[in-house]
From TrEMBL:
The keyword Transmembrane appears for this protein: yes
Protein name: Type II secretion system protein GspF domain-containing protein
The species this protein was found in: Candidatus Iainarchaeum sp
Regions that span the bilayer: 68-92, 104-125
Entry keywords, A to Z: Membrane, Transmembrane, Transmembrane helix
Length: 135
């Protein structure tokens, strides 16, 4: 009778080669070790691995929440304060200085440029968000 497929260890090795996640590789290594040597306390190695991963995620979450404050302030400044200052500069500055902005430019900058900058900041925040927080 011919056997088809690979052994469990070979399957785990091939799976870890395809997936570059460090945590996934550690889990497969633990599963292989439990399969080969057994485990006196059922599931204890996987539970400890899960606890380590939760601790790592908590640390990353706290780190990101600290960074999120800075990103939020940057977003508020770029979406509200700077456009308001720009509009005030256009209104007040046009009476005292020779501005070379056309009426179309005055309309398009707040209508297109600032929202594009806001989208870029939101994309930056999204790219910095850890995967497990993206939901």
């Amino acid at each position: 009778m011919k056997e088809k497929g690979a052994s469990l260890q070979e399957a785990f090795i091939h799976a870890s080669e395809r997936n570059h996640s460090h945590m996934f590789r550690r889990a497969l290594a633990h599963l292989t070790q439990v399969y080969e040597q057994g485990n006196r306390i059922k599931g204890e190695r996987l539970r400890s691995l899960a606890r380590e991963e939760l601790a790592r995620q908590r640390a990353k979450s706290k780190e990101f929440s600290g960074k999120l404050v800075t990103y939020s302030l940057m977003f508020i400044a770029l979406s509200a304060i700077i456009p308001a200052l720009f509009q005030a500069f256009i209104v007040v500055g046009s009476t005292f200085m020779e501005l070379t902005l056309s009426p179309l430019q005055v309309l398009l900058i707040p209508a297109l440029v600032f929202p594009l900058i806001d989208l870029a900041v939101l994309q930056l925040i999204r790219s910095k968000t850890p995967e497990f927080l993206k939901g």
